[in-house]
From TrEMBL:
UniProt xrefs under InterPro entries: DUF4123
Protein name: PF13503 domain protein
Organism: Neisseria sicca VK64
Domain DUF4123: 22-150
Pfam families xref list: DUF4123
Length: 187
């Protein structure tokens, strides 16, 4: 197992930046103080723009610090010792709360797609919060989503990594468009 470093995210970004937009999605509810402190320290001092995926949804009144937060990665924020790379490295060593998802879709369309999956309904039509952005949930998606829902959810994604503590980053790829893992592989 190789240690996940800020170079992991820089190399990942470099290999995909010309193919798709990459988004860092952080499950802030796992470490709200750490994420809030980071945002307070860096907001206005960097070009990072933090967005809550809960904004504009039925969960919209959840505090920002307890929301899934996404940051669009670009060449302005992806360099060695950049604030986001340092945060990525720190969180990957201690927490399982990081996703990197790539899509060729326009940002607004893709984010709307992700927001559509923040809640799902059971067989009775009762909506439930669906924490797909929590990497610890990834291995259980086959128990929550039907094959059709899985394929629909991942359709606009080119690649999706999760970061699990104590695991090699490359082994945590959930899906990749070139070899899209079939639903049954997740069971």
């Amino acid at each position: 197992m190789s240690k996940i470093t800020q170079n992991t995210i820089i190399e990942t970004f470099s290999s995909y930046k010309d193919l798709c937009n990459l988004y860092l999605i952080i499950d802030a509810a796992q470490q709200p103080e750490k994420i809030t402190d980071f945002i307070r320290q860096k907001y206005g001092k960097t070009n990072l723009i933090f967005h809550s995926l809960f904004a504009g949804t039925q969960e919209g009144n959840v505090p920002f610090r307890a929301s899934p937060i996404y940051i669009k990665l670009d060449t302005d924020n992806m360099y060695e010792n950049s604030p986001i790379c340092l945060l990525f490295e720190e969180l990957c060593q201690t927490e399982s709360m990081i996703n990197i998802i790539g899509s060729t879709q326009d940002e607004a369309i893709f984010v709307k797609h992700l927001k559509n999956y923040l809640s799902i309904c059971d067989e009775n039509g009762t909506p439930y919060l669906f924490r797909w952005y929590d990497p610890r949930i990834g291995k259980y998606m086959h128990q929550v989503l039907t094959e059709e829902q899985w394929l629909e959810f991942t359709a606009p994604m080119e690649v999706w990594w999760i970061s699990m503590v104590q695991y090699d980053f490359e082994s945590q790829i959930i899906m990749h468009n070139n070899y899209r893992k079939q639903y049954e592989n997740h069971q």
